[in-house]
Amino acid sequence: MARIAVVGPGSVGVFFAGHLAAAGHDVIACARRPFDRYVIESAEFPLDIEATVVTDPEDIESTVDWVLVCVKAHQTEGAAGWLAALCDQNTRVLVVQNGIEHHRVDPFVNGAPSIPAVVYCGAELVAPGRIEHLTSGRLIVPAEPFGQELVELFAESQAELRPSGNFATHQWRKLSMNIMANGLTALTRRKMGVVTEPGVKPIAIALVRECWQLAQAEGADLDPGNAEEAVETLMASGGDGGTSMFYDTLAGRPTEHDAIHGAALRCADRLGIDTPTIRIIHGLLDARAPTN
Ligand SMILES: NC(=O)c1ccc[n+]([C@@H]2O[C@H](COP(=O)([O-])OP(=O)(O)OC[C@H]3O[C@@H](n4cnc5c(N)ncnc54)[C@H](OP(=O)(O)O)[C@@H]3O)[C@@H](O)[C@H]2O)c1
Fold first, then answer.
1. CA nearest 268: which of 225, 223, 217, 234?
2. Check whether domain 3-164 has CATH 3.20.20.80, yes or no
3. How many Cβ atoms are within 10 Å of 124's Cβ, its own excluded?
4. 213 secondary structure, DSSP code
5. At 279, which helix (H) or strand (E)?
6. In this predicted model, what pLDDT tens digit does every residue of 118-165 receive, in sequence order?
7. Which of 14, 20, 53, 190 is deepest in the core (most CB within 10 A)?
8. Greatest C-alpha distance within the chain
9. Please, which pLDDT band fits residue 289 given cuts at 50, 70 and 90?
10. Do domains 3-164 and 167-287 have the same CATH topology?
């Protein structure tokens, strides 16, 4: 049994905290709002079990074996008090966030190693401790150096943990879909079906193509020449779901565009690769008027 803290038990955090607790681990949820049970409404992975919840970092008595960082990327600094109380050099920090800049946690974790995760878990927090879970419960992590330890941590759990020797490809493929889908749905305030609009589809393809140019330069196995096919395949699946940036925009909450589009631009600048479409979409996202 490992001692695990989940910082930010929201849509994704409740899923992994609940299933790791159900697997017999000692799990603390580090939350802003109190709750006493993990309730996961789900066709595939339902759960309703007691939760141990702390709402003040000063109540953390000792460091833990594992921390799962599940706050949104722009909330990471705000969670620094939790990370300082939970981490020492023996702690491992799994960053359960979208994007490619998981090292954002490093200034706050007292020298603990941080591990990026690509997150596939469609869920929405409906009340503290309670989520509606729609699809997947999977994390993909680099095979080295902690992949096997993570496999063991998740072994008895219904949540899925996959180490990959080709992590960069997973990470960049997910980033490209977020760059395309999150930005366009947030700006148009329409769900994914907006990508089939004749005026929008070329923008979607350009976004994926530019992202895959960066990905290829960073060693991912993604060919920019296949960007159009990737968008066609996604649209052929017929989904008209929302994205997290779409829902955050409608609710007037800050969005993760700096961790998604901004991260791609920082990479583009470092590599000297021109990504004009990503730059335009990022500029528009950044310039939106506050909604409330
Ligand atoms: N949701 C999905 O379907 C999904 C899918 C794939 C990837 N992701 C990624 O997963 C990451 C987490 O997203 P999410 O959807 O789970 O976000 P979320 O539902 O907004 O959950 C974040 C949680 O963190 C809490 N929080 C924020 N600051 C905190 C602090 N200082 N101390 C303690 N708790 C704090 C929030 O508390 P309050 O509840 O009080 O606001 C919220 O419950 C993001 O990077 C996202 O892009 C999400």
1. 217
2. no
3. 16
4. H
5. helix 276-287
6. 999 999 999 999 999 999 999 999 999 999 999 999 999 999 999 999
7. 14
8. 57
9. confident
10. no
The per-residue pLDDT for 236 is 86
Protein residue with least CA distance to atom 24, ligand 1: 8
The model's pLDDT over 17-57, given as tens digits with 9 standing for 90+, comes to 999 999 999 999 999 999 999 999 999 999 999 999 999 99
Q: Ligand 1, from 45, 69, 74, 244: best to mutate by most atoms within 8 Å of Cβ?
A: 244
Neighbours of 28 (CB within 10 A): 24
Q: Whose CA is nearest to atom 39 of ligand 1?
A: 10
Q: Which atom of ligand 1 is nearest to the CA of 259?
A: 45
Q: What is the 3-state secondary structure (H, E, C) of 6-33?
A: EECCCHHHHHHHHHHHHCCCEEEEECCC
Residue type, 154: F
Residue 243 scores a pLDDT above 80: yes
Tell me the domain boundaries of the chain: 3-164, 167-287
Identity of residue 47: L
Active site residue 201: no
Closest CA to 243 of 205, 288, 284, 189: 189
pLDDT value at 94 more than 70: yes
Residue 227 and residue 212 in contact, taking contact as beta carbons nearer than 8 Å: yes
Q: How far is CA 110 from the centre of its chain?
A: 22
Ligand 1 near 30 CB (within 6 A): yes
The CATH homologous superfamily of the domain defined by 167-287: N-(1-d-carboxylethyl)-l-norvaline Dehydrogenase; domain 2 (1.10.1040.10)
272/265 Cα distance (integer angstroms): 10
- Tell me which residue of 268, 68, 283, 78 sits closest to 187, measured CA to CA: 283
Stretch 234-256: mean pLDDT:
88
